[in-house]
Amino acid sequence: MEEIAVTLEDGRTVYMCTSSKNSEYNTVVRVCPNKFRAYWKREPYPLEPDLVFGGEKEWRQDYKFGKAERGFSFGKTNPVPLPRLIAKSKTEKVAVKEKGFLFSKVVGYEEVEQLHYVGLDDGITRTIWLLANDAKFIPVLCNKKQADILSQFAGYEEK
Fold first, then answer.
1. InterPro entries, from UniProt (predicted)?
2. Domain count, the chain
């Protein structure tokens, strides 16, 4: 079980862990909160649209928010499980351009895999709690294939 410390904007540290018994979700990715939200809003059929498209006010009013507050309060002695995330990618054709003196022209196309959207399979309340408390990053569990594309497009880069 891997333990992850997450720093909040107010300087507090909360603790999370990789307690998923589902072997499909076996890779931890630290995602940038703003990038995560942008891709989460693209989810075509969100389980909780009010939370996906809401903000801090809506998150704090969620009926389970207090339970997350209590769960995170135990600290290192009882870390909170990581949310499980699904990252859907799609392949798009991107124009390959050749620069000329004044103009560029399309000389072909290449297929590029891009992150399309993310969704939460488990852990919505934990995630909105981290967002509402301005976590520097959000650690999530996903499968290895999704982890690579998620890191590329929404990964957290330490400054």
1. PFIN
2. 1
